[in-house]
Amino acid sequence: MSLDVLRESLPAYAKDLSLNLSSLEAETVLTDQQKWGAFLACAYATGVGPVIKAIEAAATEAGLSDEARTAAKAAAAIMGMNNIYYRSLHLMKNPEYRTLPARLRMNVIGNPGVDKTDFELWSLAVSAVNGCGMCLDAHEGELKKRGLANVAIQAALRIASVVNAVSRVIASETAIAA
């Protein structure tokens, strides 16, 4: 499934999502690797098959390397764990949990196989999908240290928002059709 087919599969009530998907596909603030890695990481974070397939095909067609595709998937995987853990720490009233070591393996963050800035950007986008404010702040801080502009960070957040919304619509429409 291509992005065109994905857009066409959206119901009329989600026309804004279709239009936003088109405009983000043409986004030029990010490098192609940053953009397509963010799309792919967010698609994997949502776990909606048709969306993953369409975005994977578009990312491959756009030239996203095997290494970058693997790193984007790794960002979705590691943030799937970290976002739950750190969001829980943030929400719990007992501050002692924040002083304890996480004792969770996170080696991919130190050696993602792609430019660290790109991996941080994808991790930020997935953290937006998963709703972890603590992780959003941490990844934004790393991106700012690396000189990434606010408009680039915003572009990744926009991608996360639209991929998440498209995934929810596709999943909902699939559920009621079954």
Structure description:
With 178 residues, the chain is mainly α. It has a single domain, classed as Up-down Bundle (AhpD-like), CATH 1.20.1290.10. Helix 3 packs parallel to helix 10 and helix 8 runs antiparallel to helix 9. 41% of the residues are buried. The mean pLDDT is 95.
Secondary-structure blueprint of this entry?
Blueprint lengths: L2 H7 L5 H11 L6 H15 L2 H13 L4 H26 L4 H4 L7 H4 L5 H15 L2 H13 L4 H28 L1
Quick overview:
This protein is an all-alpha fold.
- Succession of helices and strands: HHHHHHHHHH
Helix content: over 70%
CA gyration radius, whole angstroms: 16 Å
Distance between the termini: 20 Å
Q: CATH-wise, what's the superfamily? A: AhpD-like
So how many helices?
Answer: 10
Attribute tags:
178 residues; globular; 10 helices; AhpD-like; mainly alpha
